[in-house]
Design brief:
By secondary structure, the protein is mainly α. It has one domain. Helices cover 67% and strands 0% of the residues. The chain has two helices and no strands. Helix 1 runs antiparallel to helix 2. The radius of gyration is 15 Å and the shape is elongated.
Length: 66
């Protein structure tokens, strides 16, 4: 039987992801670091956030090979 997490679990995961993303953006994201390194880290963090958020919302396991 395929066990899927409920709605509350997904909302808690999104809240936790948002908290981590905000902390990372404050410390390493856009405008941090020398010259454009903050822009690069900010874009990388944004892309990772979007991948993880889509994974949580759609229930897709991107790391499963089978």
């Amino acid at each position: 039987m395929d066990r899927r997490p409920g709605c509350l679990v997904g909302l808690l995961q999104l809240a936790f992801l948002n908290t981590i993303f905000d902390w990372l953006q404050d410390n390493f994201g856009f405008g941090r670091g020398c010259s454009c390194s903050g822009i690069g880290c900010g874009v990388i963090l944004l892309i990772l956030f979007l991948i993880f958020a889509c994974s949580i919302v759609t229930g897709t396991d991107w790391f499963s090979l089978f």
